[in-house]
Amino acid sequence: MNNMMIIGQYVPGNSIIHRLDPRTKITVIFFFVVFVFFANSFWSYALLTVFAAVSVIASRVPVRYIAKGLTPIWFLIVFTFLLHLIVTKEGQVAFEIFSWKIYTGGIAQGIAISMRFFLLIVVTSLLTLTTTPIEITDAIEEMLAPLKKVKFPVHELALMMSISLRFIPTLMQETDKISKAQASRGVDFRTGPLKERIKAVVPLLVPLFVSAFKRAEELAMAMEARGYQGGEGRSKLRELRIGKIDVLIYILFICVVAGLFLLRS
Amino acid sequence: MKIQTLVVNAVIAALYVAVSMVLLIFPPLAFSNIQFRIPEIFNHLVVFNKKYFFGIIVGVFLTNIFSPTGVYDLIFGVAHSAISLGIVILLGRIIKKPVTHMIANTLVFTFNMFIIAFELYIALDLPFFWSWLTTAAGELGIMAVGIPIMYALNKKVRFGQII
């Protein structure tokens, strides 16, 4: 359970990627996710792979952390590859397995789709590996700021996220404590039919909700007592700033996108 | 937004993430936790009070940030929840009985799994209808199981009055 208490995947560090403004990371990753779908040739995939590899190296995040993040989705990648291998019937017959013909088009399509998904996961996971959840929250608040004009509660939403992040470890400990208490009374979460295990979740959720709402009430009272009045005129502990490195990264990324379109077949 | 509403929503979001992570302790339940998340039953909270909307959305958002697939699920996952919850809140104007409303909620969330199927289609080129069917089956299962659970919980906790 102790390992579970480390929420998120953030790996502390002082690399160039760590020091980037979180807004830069979110913007670049967002457009990477969009532009990766434009890759359609060997060289365009090669360029994006080099970009992903350089980003990983620059982040100085140990490869084992990235590999760990990929563990749950290996199945999906392999499944997708095999599906395209079987379903796609384009090109020439490459070989036969038990009288099932495998086409060159199927192999190419399988590799391309798997590679695209692999790149997506590696690059997007760099955001959570090099940025704390609080930084992400701050960045989202800044990026959604224009929506304040249409009365969207941007500040409240950001504050909600910050409070949530503060409460997650507490509620996880609480969940662990309650589940152990229920287990000591004979509740079995691990074995038996699915229906019984779902039923066993109820005595876990009731005290959890009661305790969570009690904490919420106490916090709301404390905030009211201290005169909390929303986001108007509030200053920030952490100010986000776009620096020279951020500008450099934007230029580099634009070059990569331009290269991608040149290398498309 | 009232302080009470803000804080209760924050705690609901935290609970969503905490319960998602605790699921990992129960591997048999988490075998397909991409779509079979126990806290999906929290979606029924909007039936008791529409103000739970933001808490659920933030919960989904934070859970997806912590998930191994990273920010990739963020857009589609959050869009699925926001659109579905919006429809369910609108349905609340004509459906007054909580159980009927929860059944409608289950059907809306299940139907809207086409958004996730579309995500799988564009990301992995997986067959759209096959993905829709499988993801919808998982959602239908967990949301249907959630109806009696949330009904029972509401009798003890009174969700509608807290926020």
Automatic annotation (TrEMBL), chain A:
Its main location: membrane. The keyword Signal does not apply. CDD domains: EcfT. Keywords: Cell membrane, Membrane, Transmembrane, Transmembrane helix, Transport. It is a multi-pass membrane protein. It is found in: Cell membrane. InterPro entries: ABC/ECF_trnsptr_transmembrane, EcfT. The keyword Membrane applies. The chain crosses the membrane at residues 28-57, 69-87, 107-129, 245-263. Belongs to the energy-coupling factor EcfT family. Forms a stable energy-coupling factor (ECF) transporter complex composed of 2 membrane-embedded substrate-binding proteins (S component), 2 ATP-binding proteins (A component) and 2 transmembrane proteins (T component). Transmembrane (T) component of an energy-coupling factor (ECF) ABC-transporter complex. Unlike classic ABC transporters this ECF transporter provides the energy necessary to transport a number of different substrates. This is Energy-coupling factor transporter transmembrane protein EcfT. The gene is ecfT.
Automatic annotation (TrEMBL), chain B:
InterPro entries: QueT (IPR010387). The keyword Oxidoreductase does not apply. Keywords: Membrane, Transmembrane, Transmembrane helix. The keyword Transcription does not apply. The chain crosses the membrane at residues 6-31, 52-68, 74-95, 102-123, 129-153. Pfam families: QueT. PANTHER family: INTEGRAL MEMBRANE PROTEIN (PTHR40044:SF1), INTEGRAL MEMBRANE PROTEIN-RELATED (PTHR40044). This is QueT transporter family protein. The lineage of its organism: Bacteria, Bacillati, Bacillota, Bacilli, Bacillales.
